[in-house]
Amino acid sequence: MMKPQNARGVPLKDEDLKVGKVLTTEWRVKADYAWDCGIAIGRYFDGLKEGKILATRCRRCRRTVVPPRIFCEWCFKPMDEWVEVRDTGRVNTFSVSYFSWDMTPLEKPEVPAVIEIDGCSPGVGFMHLLGEVGDNLDEILRRVKVGMKVRAVWKPADQRTGAITDILYFKPEEE
Amino acid sequence: MLVGKIDRVGRIRTLHGDMGVWHKYTFGLAGERFFRTLAEKRVLLAPRCETCRKTYLPPKIYCPTCFAELTVWVELPPRGYVETYTFLYEDLEENRLTEPVAVAFVTFPGVEGGIIHRLGEVRPEEVCSGLEVEAVLAAERSGGLQDILYFRPSRE
Amino acid sequence: MERVAVLGAGMTRFMRRAQETGKELAWEAARMALDEAGLTLKDIECVALVSAPDAFDGVHMKGEYLADGAGATRKPFMRSFVGGGSGVFAIIHGWYHVASGHFDTCLVVAEEKMSSTMPHPQAAFNTIYDQFTERPLGVNLLWIFALEMNRYMQVHKIPLETIAQVSVKNKLNGLDHPCHQEGITPGPDLTVKDVLDSEIMVWPVHRLMVSPVTDGAAALVLASERVAKRMTDKPVWIEGVGWHLDSSYWTNRDLYYPKYVEYAARMAYRMAGITDPRKEIHVVEPYDPFAYKELHHLEGLLLADKGEAPRLLEKGVFNRDGDLPSCPSGGLLGVGNPIAAAGTMKVAEIFWQLRGEAGARQVARPVKRGLAQAWGDLMQVGTVVVLGR
After folding, report:
1. Residue of B7, B15, B22, B69 to mutate, interface with A, max A Cβ within 10 Å
2. Would you say residue B7 lies in a domain?
3. pTM of the predicted model as reported, rounded to 2 decimal places
4. Residue C110 belongs to what domain range?
5. Is pLDDT of B117 > 60?
6. Which residues, other chains included, contact A91 with Cβ-Cβ below 8 Å and sequence gap of 6+?
7. Can you give the CATH number for the domain in which C246 is found?
8. Does residue C329 sit within a domain?
9. Average confidence score pLDDT of chain C
10. In the structure, what pLDDT confidence band is assigned to residue B8 with cuts at 50, 70 and 90?
11. Does position A92 have pLDDT exceeding 90, yes or no?
12. Under an 8 Å CB criterion, which residues of C touch B?
């Protein structure tokens, strides 16, 4: 005897919906948001606009972290100070994406990565994209190594708005 | 200390965005049968639990009381009654409507539950609980709640 | 604390798109579980439901909406959610209801109808990323898995071929599951080469290394010892539960090892009196939304040393006829991934394995204790349950 027995479920194919084999109805949620950036991210964005990466530091836990936060989530007390950290770092991990956010195929692959930022505690960093590392998988896998040094490439000052995209990408830097 | 009063009000940042999703729903097994019958045969059916002796609206494939599978469907009585009602003065975007719209919860004798829909061909002062109503169907039906245009006071 | 038993399990077919509404899916699974337990809805004193965010089904207050399909009309009802971890969290939640002595029976239901999300469930998933520091980069949910997978591979020097073996094992196992999603496995002769030849989504993730989008539901009936002893000669006891959450600052943690899974496992092992999990756990269902995750989680569950799981996989330890069969059900890769219900399917599998009712999927070795684990969110939550006979 093998369980489960007589399981129910009526599977549909995309075609079934298109040809109206079953009835469907649609609804579009009008959900627009105005998110307050908050104290920490607000200041972080101010820093990015000026071409700086700002971190916060908890003296008790001896941690300097990006993205910055106003309280330490480890010991639950407010952070002690802001610290300007470098705009260089090392690749902690990376990947090569062939699809965009809504699963449409990309012409050229993107290279998301987690970059450990110099000046922060070990292993601490944020996600961004790598650039100038090649246009196809073979090139990228030859060029990009975990642990390699990278440097931020910024938008020109007059084009920065105070957003994570003020950094265009991180590019490899020779040791 | 980083937590404190906001002293640079002009520098508060807000980020705008949206959810980027919409939804396409199947009617389900019960809904498919209910709305197809309405569209194709101009008849309103509802499922009945013989154990609990209850007929249910909105239609379901299971009895919510005893969990039995519902396979028997019966035709609704031709007339329903306004159990309760209200008038709408604004649309979903809070724009004022030119004419108030009457919306009612219509129940049917012997049926648990009912249908929420607009009332039509009725003056506001005629609307009351207990008003006997009948469904007015669209001439062209596509399968959905819109196949009922509204409920109006029944005509003899 | 009362002892809590699982009396019955049920599930729907796992499908890319179901005709049933979420309510109907919930009822189909719950009804099957009740029938197996030999109970009626009247016997159920409370309901614990899990389902992913309302944005997936597209129904606000989804718990309340699903409630009558989950048998909760006019009963005490609670809904919980921890991402993919929910499928096992549901049992933990239900266990609380009965172990506390507050209720004698609990119906645990897990439901997902994510096919309603347009243009693709990804569009809802993507909102898991921080709107300020991550979404503006044009993120795709697969990024974070690819980043974690690459880190895991790099730290332990794991070849892609080994990870592809997980896909082969689970997808072939899944062919023996009556509810597996149509098309989830290309064929009974699937090879590692087929997996590596499949389309690259976000390198190093290939298409056949990812579980699909799925609609489905699963349910379990829990009962106190008093009720269980009257209803069955084969009760399966909940011997240990554990759950743990890490921070959402995932870029501040080293992704090569899921610490939160270890903490959850330790909690469950302590409760179950297990000191040597590798010997005392006889069959395991770790969460496998991606092929590498099964190995990642086996290590977090302390069933393999850090970096050792790939080697044990190659030795055949995790096959159905191995020493520690893993994902005999086929897992998410072989059966499907309806977010909140997938973990519950795994618990159901352990339940059927312990009762010797898994048919063609039954593992070769004798089993008295099994473990099911789920995971969720931004590489954040571990949920674990240990069942025993």
Report:
1. B15
2. no
3. 0.95
4. 4-118+213-388
5. yes
6. A113, A114, A115, A116, A130, A144, A145, A146, A147, A148, A150
7. 3.40.47.10
8. yes
9. 97
10. low
11. yes
12. 17-21, 23-24, 27, 30-31, 34, 40-42, 55, 57-58, 68-69, 71, 73, 116-119, 123-124, 126-127, 131-132, 135
Structure tokens, C268? 């469950």
What does the pLDDT read at residue C100?
Answer: 97
Question: Dihedral through CA A28, CA A34, CA A37, CA A38, nearest 10?
Answer: -110
Residue C199 lies in a domain: no
Q: Domain of B80?
A: 26-153
- Please report, for the domain that includes residue B53, its CATH number: 2.40.50.140
> C12, C15, C20: which to substitute to probe chain B, counting the most B Cβ within 10 Å?
C20
Domain membership of residue C168 (yes or no) is no
Q: Round to whole Å and give the CA distance between C253 and A126.
A: 10
Q: Which two tokens stand for residue C71?
A: 């048998």
Query: Are the beta carbons of B62 and C69 separated by less than 8 Å?
Result: yes
Residue B11 lies in a domain: no
Q: What interface predicted TM-score (ipTM) does this complex get? A: 0.95
Chain C residues with CB inside 8 Å of B29's CB?
A: 19-21, 24
Question: How remote is the C-alpha of C195 from its chain's centroid?
Answer: 22
**Would C139 be classed as within a structural domain?**
no
Residue B102 lies in a domain: yes
> How many domains, chain B?
1
Q: Is B66–C31 a contact, with Cβ atoms under 8 angstroms apart? A: no
Across the interface, whether the CB atoms of B13 and A12 are under 8 A apart is answered no
Interface residues of B toward C, Cβ cutoff 8 Å, are: 15, 17, 19-32, 60-62, 64-67, 69
pLDDT number for residue B74: 97
Between CA B122 and CA B104 the distance in angstroms is 12
Question: Do C235 and C213 touch, CB atoms closer than 8 A?
Answer: no
Q: Considering the domain boundaries, does residue B17 fall inside one?
A: no
Chain B residues with CB under 8 Å of A71 CB are: 2-3
